[in-house]
Amino acid sequence: MTKKELRIIYREKRASLQPHGAEKMQDLILINFQQLSLPFLEYLHIYLPSQVHVEVDTFSIMEYLKFINPGLRVVIPKTQWDDGTMQHYLYDDNTVLVKNKFDILEPAGGELVLENQVDLVLLPLLAFDEKGYRVGYGKGFYDRFLSHCREDVIKIGLSFFDAEKRIDDTDEFDIPLTYCITPGKIYEF
């Protein structure tokens, strides 16, 4: 299937999730995430989950990673719609958040972090395939961001659903995941 077709299907699948079922799936994703053997991390880049878009919650994973990586610095993105890029800011209790035009919380400002400082990125996605390619929301922000990260950056997708066999229209700009964590499985690519 194409990215466009998968976006339609997986937006509907997410919208049909019942709150109790989604909570249970999030717990299973965290349990599976805890099975990963990860190096010590200094910088973790996360997306702030949108309830409107029924995204997998990143906060429990962030707290787990902060526990096992004392001093971990958490980074969140701010989209730059004029040029299709993102800026990356440290995230802490003092960070002021504002909603962008898609109802996604972003930092109003703060301390900038460079892409090459990031050790691990939790990526938002709608769907992914067995080769680790993801379908996002279609604006290319994360692929542009990842192209500026270090080669060894760990890229982890979080999904309520299992992998598709193949995304038909991947291109040379698409950057595959390192792992994708679902309620039932850890995919390694």
Structure characteristics:
Rossmann fold, alpha/beta, 22% strand, globular, 189 residues
Commentary on this structure:
- With 189 residues, the chain is an alpha/beta fold.
- It has a single domain (3-188), classed as Rossmann fold, CATH 3.40.50.
- Helix content is 23%, strand content 22%.
- The protein has helices at 3-15, 19-33, 59-68, 141-146; strands spanning 43-45, 73-80, 85-90, 97-99, 105-107, 120-123, 127-128, 134-135, 154-158, 179-181, 186-188.
- It has a 7-stranded mixed beta sheet.
- The longest helix has 15 residues, at 19-33.
Task: Show the helix and strand layout.
Layout: H1 3-15, H2 19-33, E1 43-45, H3 59-68, E2 73-80, E3 85-90, E4 97-99, E5 105-107, E6 120-123, E7 127-128, E8 134-135, H4 141-146, E9 154-158, E10 179-181, E11 186-188
* Assigned CATH superfamily: NagB/RpiA/CoA transferase-like
Looking at the overall shape, the CATH architecture is 3-Layer(aba) Sandwich
User: What Rg is obtained from the alpha carbons, in whole angstroms?
Assistant: 16 Å
Please state the overall shape, judged from the principal axes of the Cα atoms: globular
Q: Beta-strand percentage?
A: 15-25%
CATH topology heading: Rossmann fold
Q: Report the major sheet.
A: 7 strands, mixed
> Can you tell me the residue ranges where pLDDT is under 50 for at least 5 consecutive residues?
none
Q: First CA to last CA: what distance?
A: 20 Å
Q: What is the class in the CATH system? A: Alpha Beta
Structural class: alpha/beta
Mean pLDDT over the full residue set: 95
Strand order of the largest sheet: 3-2-1-6-9-10-11
Q: Helical content, roughly?
A: 10-25%
| Count of alpha/pi helices | 4
